[in-house]
Amino acid sequence: MDSHGCSNGLRDEEIDAVAMEVTVVIVNTMGDKESSSHDMLTWLRQRRALLQSVAEAPDCGATCEEGVKLCAAVTSGVFLRQTPRMATGLQAVRDVTSALLQAYPNAIKWPMGRRRAQILCAFCEKGFPNCFGAIDCTHIYMDKPAGAPFENYYDRKQKFSVQAHVVVDLDLRILDVHVGYLGSVHDVCVLHNSQLFRRAESGELFDATPENLPHGVVTRGYLLGDNGYPVACSWIVSPYGGIDQGADEERFDKRQKVARGCVEKAFSRLKCMWCLFLRTHKTNLETLPQQFVAVCTLHNILLDARIDFDENLLWEVDANNVQRRVDLGIVGNGARGRGRCTNVEGELLRDALQDGLALM
């Protein structure tokens, strides 16, 4: 499922339900840290502005009672076993998703105008002119799927999952999301079956003012990716990889990794705020993509409201009472050894960016 609109209407009298659940997320993610009175006042003002923006959203039909409870389940990581009315959980999830996408149709969108200029400028300062964002995949873990060929969902970590690829900017804002592909497939396969790929290949996405790079290379835009995209296309720049690197290649890979680190940070914030997607859970394969897109929408709303994220949520204590980072589901399937790009245009772009960094 790509991040495009939803057309189903909802009941107008329940306009505050989404705001209620966003508030739950904010409270749950504040942690146990002590705050000064000034910090608390700032937080309260942010929360008030957020709730007001949700309540005043045009054509906002929030959710039915079942939808509210399911949204709360996504926050807590625990699904409800039943709903109090006749509406099914499946319909409730659709209601929640529909409400968010109708109220915020532009929450997830490709950057344009001033926003695009800000993104391009931010990446340029890191040594990547005309870069639109960074892309990566995350696995959403689930119980063994019923009524489906489960081996197709078995990923490299030997867990059942579906994949989502996400494009983010340096502010962690989600620009594109495609979710629902089998956990066993390669990142490139997920990409090739997405609307992002079709739009990029048609020339719709990367249309910035041409940037002249060393060796006569000209670029109008691209994304940064990991070694899971070594042969994907000419508009994803992956690291060189390998162990026999020259100084310039090593410098490039380090700078590229730092710049695309915004993807992992976005996954950290999103999954730790919405715990349902952090751990294995029982799910409905039909509604899972809808849930994830809805949460990505809320992720951007919370960023716009400048709601802080408690990074203590990134740590957990395992069965051996050892503290460790939570598993964000970034499995990775890059090639071993040197990640040579078989796409000639992509390799020329990477080499030109490398030489440009060497001159900085």
From TrEMBL:
A GO term, aspect molecular function: nuclease activity
UniProt GO cellular component terms: nucleus
Main location: nucleus
Keywords: Hydrolase, Metal-binding, Nuclease, Nucleus
Keyword Nucleus: yes
Any Pfam family matching the protein: DDE_Tnp_4
InterPro entries, per the entry: HARBI1-like (IPR045249), HARBI1_dom (IPR027806)
Family the UniProt entry places it in: Belongs to the HARBI1 family.
Name of protein: DDE Tnp4 domain-containing protein
Annotated organism of origin: Chara braunii
